[in-house]
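Sample A.
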Amino acid sequence: MGERVAVGRFGGSCGRCPACRAGALIHRARLRVPGGACPGGYAEAVVVPATAPARIPDELTAVEAAPMGCAGVSAFRALRRGPARPGDLVAVLGLGGLGHLGVQFAARLGCETVAIARGAGKAGAARRFGAHHYLDSIEGNVAGRLRALGGAAAVPATAWSSPPAGDPPGRRRGGCPGAGAGARPAPPPRRCGGRLRPAGRPVLCSPGRSAGGWPGRAGRRGRPLR
């Protein structure tokens, strides 16, 4: 009682459907998105299922904690569940709502961090967020420049609206954890590495590898956002 909590896009789990029973709570068949299934998402008080909230640490203000319930936990989980380890090169594709948090998380997790976005004007912001390198996706082949840096162990993709990014940039054990999706309708999917991938989206995996995504929830059961 009396604790501060955050409720992101995840609106609780039923605990009964196949997705919930497998621990992929965010993929449940009847996802309860606050503001829709739980009216009052923009109010000062809202009633949500007991499985939805995550406790806010005392060290965070409400303003600091606000983006963590959705964008923050999505970007962090993509890194936590991905193959990259401290010292590895991680390339964050996109520098928007999820990407700018992904860059900060990757840098503070001890990774050599590359930010990829459109236009040279975002280079300064990328550096302030902790990026060691900035690649303007308009200038040249992004994958080739990543290979020149030694190859990326992981490429968290937070923006999908760009044209194909070129040849595969990853190392052998690299991965492409998806943390977001673009707003434009996607064409029918086609094969990539033996698996389906949406057509017209960046080619960031090579044959024999595949892009992977993880639920944006903190864990199988609710955990504090610490």
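Sample B.
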Amino acid sequence: MDKKKKIIEILKSEIQTSSVVFDSPHSGSEYPDDFNFACDIDDLRMAEDMYVDELFSHAPQNGSVLLKALFPRSYIDPNRSLPVEGSINEKNGRGLCRTVCNGINNVPIYDNNYSMTSAEKEKRIEDYYDEYHENLRNIIETTHKKFNKVIHINCHSMPSPNQDGSYKNEDIILGSRNGKTCSDELLNFVKTELEIMGYNVAVNIKGYRGAEIVKRHSKPENNIHSIQFEIKRNLYMNEETFEKTDNFNNLKQDIETLYKKLSDYSFKTQPIIKNNNKLGRSF
């Protein structure tokens, strides 16, 4: 890999004024030269969380930080754990280095004669996966040092159809790994604010409870709270043509409004106070 080639981008204001930070690990669309996929590029792009980084691009204008991957998740997925033999994601082809395009479109990415070597996988981990997580860790640590608290929003999109052919009723699904990555109070605040805006919101639904990023980077006992934030794609784009719809800017404005309310909420709450080894109020 050309070491000068950027694989991530960090958008931030000159002075960070908010404890709310964002990351978009799946919106990358710069395909590496050594990605020897054999499928049609439109099939492969169905794995992208298209435009999610744009939906959250208000961050630097509002005193926050947005980390986004420039590489595609189909090359290597920062939201998967490092290889575990026999894991469900490895079995269904959507693990660290996936072999099918996505859960709805199971078109094979590689031809039948291709088998990724251990050296190839290790190179992707070292050059892409590790750098993404290192930068996110630095953002969270810097934010925590400054504010003594972090609200981390892990940004994603989800296809409107389910694998069984039915369609999702939920507009947005919030995941906290069943309360392990953020406080219930914070999660309920985000859910309520979105519902006030008119969105149908669900929490911790199977398949959307939160994956590697919120698991790895959250630490609620130290006031570092992470929420996986999934947006249904047909709210803002045509899933067949990949074009933005007229509602794109409305959704983007609603997300910015939510951010401002979340940032105010963070400032009005007290950081964790440890007393006799018991945690005080977090959020």
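B remarks: The beta strands are 8-12, 20-24, 65-69, 150-158, 172-175, 201-203, 224-232, 274-275, 278-279. The chain has one domain: 8-279.
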